[in-house]
Write a structure and sequence with these properties.
The complex is a heterotrimer. Chain A is 32% helix and 16% strand. By secondary structure, chain A is α+β, with helices and mostly antiparallel strands. Chain A has 2 domains: 76 residues, Beta-grasp domain (Ubiquitin-like (UB roll), Roll), CATH 3.10.20.30; 69 residues, DNA polymerase, domain 1. The chains are: A alpha+beta, B alpha+beta, C alpha+beta.
């Protein structure tokens, strides 16, 4: 199978991937770009551990064909903190409010909640839960994840 | 305890910043140079003879580096009762038996190779029900035991018989008695990170196993025993954990995939990674042990329990892992949850051709507590006593010694029951609402270690460098519960440093001392106590160094001042205040005399002392290093299954309010209060995190989760059809953290990892009964079961 | 995953001619949330995937003169966010806002959902109840048919090889019409339903007499179905609890519920009976 060439914006940089056409975005991120922050929890779009943001929308990268990413803007967990390493309020909030336990679902949770807060800076608890309904977590019972997202929203509003 | 700086505070988990930036390395992310990918071929039958395996096509596929079957690896038995081999050669006994394994340069090629392996089976009659399997003439799952002796029955010879007091006398003393049959089924642990490991041999055949285990030292020991049987006796094994994506009991044994990975690495002389897909995680990973209970209880007219008699039948599946030992933990609630003198509990474990089981959070306690607490509610009703009152009448108290000889020291059970009663508005709501109800259930669990093995020790080593940075080598593991943060709080508090001064290494047998395992909710208790002891030793060294160095440092300081300002007069100080280690202490990295904590001159930052102590110029320089191995004064269970195996016990009560839609059978949890006696919360936010997470798993156990097994085959091996709760299934959990302290816990802390889960299902079941008068006796309480029961009730009326 | 080439035609003709060239070895792919999963699970192994994402004119939501046209490539998220759908066709909002997860809805299309044709497709039942038609383009011709007739079996539609589903047409509804959809699940998200019930009721000016009744059922037959006997009970009559109960019972009788690992037949029938009544009440509220 001949490789295809796909150009897109990845965490702010224009990149080109040369991969087989049947590769998913997740496989490309993890193996071609060695960005292993996005995880494979199920491989079939049922757990959200692979969530990334494409053109502002939260997407399961494990079932997203790589060619469809051409010309789009992709953000992964590795692109959430500032270039100088300053953590995004979501990252800070997850650490401060015990929204992270084993951490396997965390990348996906942060991406889903970032997609939410980028569009809706003042979400209700229901809206938060709906935005992460496709992100499974076994450790936290979701409570402190919701609290982390609420705190992050507050921090963003206060300009932190 | 009044002026603690770090213990009891909500110190954030900033030490784990890698997890929020995508940098944490899980097994999925680990890459070793030249690493190959291993895949396993599973059997398609629950019970069959393997007539032929042909791997020639697979071997020829480009990119394949090894193909293994039971015939080309040593035929050595593994497992708790040594009742299986790594790859199955002649007979497969369950649907997911490992029949062959491939190592290749990519996952895709390895999978392709599996498809090219030809296996011919001759199907054999199988048995899928433990009751059937116990009957005479039933198909035998095993023909011989580990020693080659013929087996005549599917009943596994395990010593699970417990007796205390006199049951018959108990019956005679009873004014009321109840008897119930209850059952729980298989559920999956659902770790978000799937199982897997990377095995790598060096050229001398010493192994490094990158793993996710809860028990690195036991894992190492089991592998070394295996090595001795396969011609690698004396070779070293180092087990090193990467970041673990959850455990919930899945990593307490040495799994078959670990042995397979090791064989592939040995054969190929390359590092090999095996990583389960989610489907494998559902099909091939041993789940929670199911159980069928018959339980009888009685009480006198005043509501005091007179006896408790229970039997359990365990569908063990085809091989043994920790599932078969869950009765040893079931004995705890059976014999010691509430005060009851006359107790009998027997458990029969039976081989079948179903999937075999291992540990899962609670380890038999959730199953047994479902039985005990359902029975308690029934008995309360029969006796005409309010169920909360009934529990208070029989409540465990400090100072009790239970029929299992458990010595109850700290005990907050009464407070737990009362606080839950209050929060639920129990008296207003019990029996009073249509379609709504309240219910409660309590728990007892080990919380001060668990002497399951001959040693229940935990070793810790620390070194403090010249900058005052502390490296802790901690022999426990981290599955995500927050151990690094909690232990750094305890070390900081005990030594007088700050949490940010501490780096920890966990789960590395090459660097750390020894630990029985991060299981049985023992980690904080054991590591915390080891930390206190090791810090005592380290502190002594630092203060001895301070006695030598402080006067010099202070006087040098005066000399420098005099050089700058000739008018400066060296103050006349009483150096006897700092003349011996007993007179000094450290707080916030400052060393000071205890009798004059605010002394203007006798206050030196610890790194100055450490640097001076190391760079002496002449004579003996010193470093600060200490170790401690803490093994609590507890007992193993004796032949009668009695013994104080833990130094202290956790208690708790979960109270639930539910609303049942009587037309659909759906149960909605309106409120869930989880009151837990944790001794002392080292980090309240983290403690709550444990309670929330465990309560959710408990709610799933009660209402939605079940592995659907049909003739040994898992029919729902994915998240679509295995109903783990999502964020939108909001369960309003409120933890009530009760801190009566504990004289043996580090700063008074007890374990909390498992207790949060244990009483959840029976509390919900009891609440459902209060709401609609229906008692569901087998988990999960699905809408179908509720609706069917409601219809039946209506018909009877 | 098996090897495949991924083609991205920009016109319908190009797409169709790709399909003609590769025939059985080719499969159209919309969002991919069904097709990619099927490939990964080994259920299908096409050599060529023909993406429909870059075709023009398939992503519209147009509400004109009471008629609604939805392009096949409209995602569930677009439907969820559409104010006109929420206001005029809340039954569709009911359906899409509970499909899968945000991640799935951002990518999965209403057309893909219909063409995948699982008995549990949440998009299908409300659309059938609204009386939707589909416009299909193929190598030889364009055709329009009732959505109800589009499904012929589990996973099977009447699409001929190479045909592409273009859009859904929902004709103007009667005045005083309300419609609602219930997805019965065990959990609140990520669920394929145990069953789906859609009810559409049009009321006369007296706001009590039913002039039109449509009841769509999902997962209780090989394809999404209409409960015509139940509909007949309601149509032309004043709607009260008793008549709703009869309609519910009729719907339960005429559905062909079966046991599956997702639910038992008896329970499905009971829920059909219950939710036909409950959704009828919601539909009538919306008719006001």
């Amino acid at each position: 199978m001949k490789n295809v060439s796909v150009s897109f914006t990845l965490n702010g940089d224009i990149v080109t991937a040369e991969v087989p056409p049947n590769w998913t975005l997740l496989k490309t991120l993890r193996e071609y770009f060695e960005l292993t922050g996005s995880k494979e929890g199920c491989g079939v779009g049922e757990c959200g551990a692979c969530t990334v943001i494409i053109d502002g929308d939260a997407i399961n990268s494990c079932i997203y064909p790589i060619l469809e990413v051409e010309g789009k803007s992709v953000t992964t967990i590795e692109g959430v903190a500032s270039e100088d390493g300053t953590l995004h309020p979501l990252q800070k909030a997850f650490l401060e409010n015990n929204g992270v336990q084993c951490g396997f679902c965390t990348s996906g949770m942060i991406m889903s909640s970032k997609a939410l807060l980028d569009h809706n800076p003042d979400p209700t608890e229901d809206e938060i839960r709906a935005s992460i309904a496709g992100n499974l977590c076994r450790c936290t019972g979701y409570v402190q994840i919701v609290e982390s997202i609420e705190k992050a929203a507050e921090m963003i509003k206060e300009g932190k | 305890m009044s002026d603690l700086l770090y213990v009891g505070k909500n110190i954030p988990r900033t030490i784990e910043v890698d997890k929020v930036t995508g940098r944490a390395i899980y097994i999925d992310d680990l890459k070793r140079p030249g690493m190959l990918y291993g895949k396993i071929l599973y059997s398609n039958y629950a019970h069959a003879r393997i007539k032929m395996i042909n791997t020639s096509k697979a071997e020829k596929l480009p990119g394949v580096r090894a193909v293994l079957t039971g015939s080309n690896i040593p035929d050595v038995r593994v497992g708790f009762l040594k009742d299986q081999t790594v790859l199955k050669k002649d007979i497969v006994r369950q649907f997911r038996d490992e029949v062959a394994a491939v190592a290749a340069i990519s996952e895709e090629i390895a999978e392709e190779a599996l498809d090219l392996i030809e296996v011919e089976y001759e199907e054999l009659p199988a048995v899928f029900d433990p009751i059937e399997a116990m009957k005479e003439g039933a198909t035998l799952v095993h023909e011989v035991d580990a020693r080659g002796k013929p087996i005549k029955s599917n009943i596994i010879p395990m010593p699970w018989k417990f007796k205390a007091g006199d049951i018959e006398q108990g019956r005679k003393d009873s004014a009321y008695m109840v008897k119930d049959n209850l059952s729980t089924t298989w559920v999956n642990q659902c770790c978000m990170g799937t199982s897997g490991c990377v095995a790598e041999f060096d050229m001398n055949n010493n192994l490094t196993l990158y793993n996710q285990t809860n028990v690195p030292f036991l894992d190492k020991q089991r592998i070394m025993e295996h090595f001795a049987a396969i011609g690698l006796k004396g070779k070293n094994v180092r087990v090193v954990n990467v970041v673990v994506g959850g455990s919930f009991g899945t990593k307490l044994d040495t799994d078959i995939y670990e042995f397979i990975c090791i064989q592939l690495a040995l054969k190929t002389r390359k590092p090999v990674k095996i990583l389960f897909t989610r489907e494998e995680e559902f099909r091939a990973l041993p789940p929670r042990q199911p159980a069928r209970f018959t339980i009888e209880q009685g009480c006198d007219k005043e509501g005091r329990l007179t006896f408790r008699k229970a039997e359990a039948i365990l569908d063990n599946g085809a091989y043994t892992s920790w599932g078969v030992t869950t009765p040893s933990v079931m004995m705890m609630p059976m014999s010691s949850l509430y005060r009851v003198t006359n107790v009998s509990f027997e458990s029969t474990c039976v081989y079948t051709n179903n999937i075999y089981c291992q540990a899962m959070r609670g380890y038999g306690n959730p199953q047994a507590t479902f039985a005990v607490e359902t029975s308690m509610d029934r008995l309360a009703e029969k006796a005409g006593i309010d169920p909360a009152e009934f529990r208070l009448i029989n409540c465990n108290q400090s100072g009790d010694v239970t029929p299992m000889r458990l010595k109850i020291t700290s005990c907050g059970l009464e407070e737990c029951i009362n606080s839950v009663k209050k929060r639920l508005n129990w008296s207003e709501k019990k029996r009073k609402q249509k379609s709504r109800g309240v219910g409660m259930a309590s728990l007892i669990h080990v919380a001060g270690g668990a002497r399951v093995y001959l040693s229940d020790g935990h070793g810790m080593m620390i070194k403090v460098d010249q900058n005052g940075h502390i490296d802790v080598l901690e022999s426990g593991t981290d599955q995500g519960q927050g151990s690094p943060t909690v232990i750094s709080q305890i070390v900081a508090e005990s030594l007088g440093f700050r949490p940010e001064d501490i780096s920890l290494t966990l789960g590395d047998t090459g660097l750390c001392l020894w630990d029985a395992g991060t299981h049985a909710s023992r980690h904080t208790f054991m590591a915390g106590n080891a930390a206190i002891r090791v810090c005592e030793k380290a502190k002594k060294q630092i203060l001895e160094m301070a006695v030598e160095q402080m006067p010099k440092l202070i006087k040098n300081g005066f000399k420098r001042k005099k050089r700058k300002d000739p008018d400066f007069v060296e103050p006349d100080l009483d150096y006897s205040l700092i003349s011996s280690p007993e007179k000094l202490d450290i707080k916030n990295r400052m060393v000071f005399p205890t009798t004059a904590p605010d002394h203007p001159y006798f206050k030196v930052e610890v790194s100055q002392i450490l640097r001076s102590g190391l760079h002496v110029g002449i004579g003996e320089s010193k470093v600060v290093v200490a170790e401690a191995f803490y093994d609590p004064p507890t007992e193993m269970l004796d032949r009668e299954m009695k013994g104080n195996l833990s130094l202290t016990y956790a208690f708790g009560t979960t109270g639930v309010e539910v609303e049942v839609d009587e037309k659909t059978g759906k149960v909605k949890i309106l409120n869930l209060f989880a009151a837990h006696d944790v001794g002392k919360a080292i980090n309240p936010t983290l403690v709550k995190g444990q309670i929330y997470g465990a309560a959710y798993i408990g709610a799933g156990y009660a209402l939605t989760e079940e592995i659907k097994l049909e003739k040994g085959r898992v029919m729902n091996p994915n998240f679509r059809d295995y109903k783990m709760l999502t964020a939108r299934d909001a369960v309003p959990v409120e933890p009530i953290v009760i801190e009566p302290g504990d004289k043996d816990g580090p700063y008074g802390a007890k374990g909390i990892g498992e207790p949060g889960l244990v009483p959840t299902a029976p509390a919900i079941a009891n609440a459902v009964y209060d709401a609609i008068g229906i008692r569901i006796r087998d988990l999960p309480i699905t809408p179908e079961k509720v609706l069917a029961a409601l219809k039946e009730k209506k018909q009877q009326q | 995953m098996n090897n495949f080439e991924y083609l991205m035609p920009t016109t319908i003709n190009e797409a169709i001619s790709f399909h003609e060239s590769y025939g059985d070895q080719a499969k159209y792919i919309a969002g991919g949330t069904d097709v990619i999963v099927k490939i990964k699970e080994g259920k299908i192994s096409p050599q060529y995937l023909i993406s429909l994402r870059h075709l023009q004119g398939l992503d519209h939501i147009i509400y004109e003169k009471g008629e609604l046209r939805i392009g096949a490539m409209v995602t569930h998220s677009m439907l969820e966010r559409s104010p006109v759908i929420r206001k005029e066709f809340p039954i569709l909002t009911d359906a899409v806002e509970n499909i899968g997860s945000v991640q799935i809805r951002n990518v999965a299309t209403i057309g893909g959902n219909i063409v995948n044709a699982v008995p549990s497709a949440d998009g299908a039942v409300p659309l059938i109840t609204l009386g939707a038609e589909v416009r299909v383009i193929g190598p030889k011709r364009e055709r329009i048919m009732a959505l109800e007739d589009f499904f012929i079996g589990p996973g099977q539609t009447s699409l001929k090889s190479g045909e592409i589903l273009m859009e859904f047409l929902i004709p103007k509804l009667l005045s005083h019409t309300g419609a609602a959809y219930w997805k019965h699940t065990r959990r609140a998200a990520m669920e394929l339903p145990i069953l789906g019930v859609a009810v559409l009721i049009s009321l006369d000016d007296d706001m009590k007499t039913c002039t039109e009744a449509r009841i769509g059922l999902g997962v209780v037959a090989p394809t999404p179905m209409r409960a015509k006997n139940a509909e007949a009970i309601l149509k032309g009559n004043k709607v009260d609890d008793e008549i709703l109960k009869k309609a519910g019972e009729a719907a339960a009788q005429e559905c062909k519920a079966r046991d599956s690992i997702r639910g038992k037949a008896w329970y499905r029938r009971d829920m059909v009976e219950l939710f036909v009544q409950r959704m009828a009440i919601v539909a009538m509220e919306r008719a006001h």
